[in-house]
Amino acid sequence: MMHRCAKRLIAVAVVVCLPVAAVAQIPADGSDTRQISVQLAQIQRALERIADSLEGQLDGQRLDLMLKRLEVSERRVAPLEEQVRKAQAERSLLRDREERARLQLSEMADRIAAGELELTDSEAEAAVAQMELDLDQLRARISELDGQLVGLENELTRVREEIRDWQDYVDRELAGR
After folding, report:
1. pTM of the model
2. Which class for 3: exposed (0-12), middle (13-18), buried (19 or more C-beta within 10 A)?
3. Is residue 97 within 8 Å of residue 138, measured between CB atoms?
4. What are the tens digits of pLDDT across the range 35-54?
5. Residue from 87, 92, 89 nearest 153 by CA
6. Phi and psi of 25, rounded to 5°?
7. Which of 50, 7, 44 is nearest to 22 (CA)?
8. Is 14 buried (19+), middle (13-18) or exposed (0-12) by CB count in 10 A?
9. What is the SS3 assignment for 147-167?
């Protein structure tokens, strides 16, 4: 940052001092006006080259900044994709467990109704209640994961759109050069 500021200060000093130095060399009697005109034209061309150079540097810095911004956005995609993948895998596992628990609960209720289990009514009710509680907890966790997945997928979509926007912007900037 200091390096850029120093360059700008030098450029400003050159822009201000060169015309002053040229004016100081003007003879009091008005002779050599042709030579002065040539020197002023040279100064003007030098200043134009300096301005063009500074503009080119500024354009390069802007492009570098845009590319870095693009890289930062791209680095955010992989972790988000990994979080989505893990949440989907966990949700799939929990849905399988939910299905098994639901089937076990149904089977338990059928066996209790058929009198196939040697349980008292209170023991049977407690077993069914515990299975229902476990099933409810699984469903709550699945619902929680569904919400997390929606948030993660929305964030991933937003980041991908941001990347696409930055890529389009960089492409337009490069095409304009």
Report:
1. 0.60
2. exposed
3. yes
4. 999 999 999 999 999 999 99
5. 87
6. -85, -5
7. 44
8. middle
9. HHHHHHHHHHHHHHHHHHHHH
